[in-house]
């Protein structure tokens, strides 16, 4: 999916992420695969990890009022003045070329892309796999949760369905890290590659999803030692003599432990 990203240093970078383009040369991509050793099942590597959220600043979208099938009235604010003044501009509305036209819904008041090749298309806030992104959450017995007992108590009392840990959404170069690749980022927790972007290229670039713009700015851009586990390449998958049903059960137990202690 297209998206602008949040940069480090407490600021916002309008580096736009367009839909993933094909590699310029298959031979060049193969050489990159060999040199980066991404064919290894499980590994650790230093990566530049950037944060983003679903707000209009990070993702380059604006609210719009539908006035015709081909135009909408953009609602924005003039922030250069002393007091923000709402402004209205008539802009062209387009169909999403990467989505089936029958699946595209029309609402009178909606969000629209303001950048990338999807400019003027409806912004849905979904990943490249078509689901909503989510932030990683530590389990109730993780050290990060136990260090904040008040927040943990509020999770138990007000939102018990948020008590267990959760795997977050990661955007990466799909030619190197395909969908389903699991990664552990220190300070963030376990995440899974479910998104991509043209600004994320190479084996040392990742984007992490956060629920709020403030949390994304707090993370900014960091250098982290990331553990990478490729799809169906966990330690149990490499046991040739173990039946498939047993492998599935072991994975289920491992995920349950991560829901309690992970993060």
Shape: globular
Number of helices: 6
Q: Mean pLDDT across all residues, rounded?
A: 81
User: CA-to-CA gap between the ends?
Assistant: 26 Å
Strand order of the largest sheet: 3-11-8-10-9-12
Helix content: 10-25%
Q: C-alpha Rg, in Å? A: 21 Å
Structural class: alpha+beta
The ordered string of helix (H) and strand (E) elements is EEHEHEEEEHHEEEEHEH
Contiguous uncertain segments of 5+ residues: 1-24, 33-39
How many strand units? Answer: 12
**Biggest sheet details:** 6 strands, mixed, barrel
> What portion of the residues fall into strands of 2 or more residues?
25-35%
Summarize the structure.
By secondary structure, the chain is α+β, with helices and mostly antiparallel strands. It is built from six helices and twelve strands.
Topology:
Elements lengths: L2 E4 L5 E6 L8 H11 L5 E11 L3 H4 L1 E8 L2 E8 L6 E8 L16 E5 L29 H4 L2 H10 L9 E4 L10 E4 L3 E7 L9 E5 L3 H7 L1 E9 L14 H18 L2
Parallel strand pairs: 3-11, 8-10
Antiparallel strand pairs: 1-2, 3-12, 4-5, 4-7, 5-6, 8-11, 9-10, 9-12
Provide the descriptors you would attach to this structure in a database record:
263 residues, four-stranded antiparallel β-sheet, disordered N terminus, six-stranded mixed barrel, 6 helices, alpha+beta
Note down, in words, how this protein is organized.
This protein is an alpha+beta fold and 263 residues long. The model is unreliable at 1-24 and 33-39 (pLDDT under 50). The protein is built from six helices and twelve strands. Strand 1 (3-6) and strand 2 form a beta hairpin. Helices cover 21% and strands 30% of the residues.
């Amino acid at each position: 999916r297209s998206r602008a990203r949040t940069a480090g240093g407490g600021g916002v970078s309008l580096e736009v992420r367009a839909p993933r383009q094909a590699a310029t040369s298959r031979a060049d991509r193969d050489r990159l695969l060999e040199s980066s050793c991404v064919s290894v099942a499980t590994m650790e590597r230093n990566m530049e990890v950037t944060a983003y959220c679903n707000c209009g600043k990070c993702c380059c979208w604006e609210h719009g009022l539908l006035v015709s099938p081909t135009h909408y009235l953009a609602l924005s604010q003039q922030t250069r003045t002393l007091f923000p003044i709402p402004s209205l501009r008539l802009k062209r509305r387009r169909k999403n070329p990467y989505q089936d036209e029958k699946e595209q819904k029309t609402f009178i008041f909606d969000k629209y892309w303001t950048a990338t090749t999807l400019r003027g298309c409806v912004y849905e806030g979904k990943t490249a796999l078509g689901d909503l992104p989510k932030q990683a959450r530590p389990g109730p017995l993780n050290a990060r949760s136990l260090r904040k007992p008040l927040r943990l108590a509020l999770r138990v009392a007000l939102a018990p369905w948020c008590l267990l840990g959760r795997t977050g959404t990661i955007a990466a170069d799909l030619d190197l890290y395909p969908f389903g690749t699991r990664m552990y980022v220190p300070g963030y927790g376990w995440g899974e590659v479910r998104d991509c972007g043209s600004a994320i290229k190479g084996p040392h670039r990742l984007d992490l999803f956060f629920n709020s713009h403030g949390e994304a700015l707090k993370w900014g851009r960091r250098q982290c030692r990331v553990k990478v586990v490729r799809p169906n390449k966990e330690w149990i998958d490499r046991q040739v003599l173990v039946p498939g049903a047993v492998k599935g059960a072991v994975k289920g137990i491992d995920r349950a432990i991560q829901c309690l202690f992970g993060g």
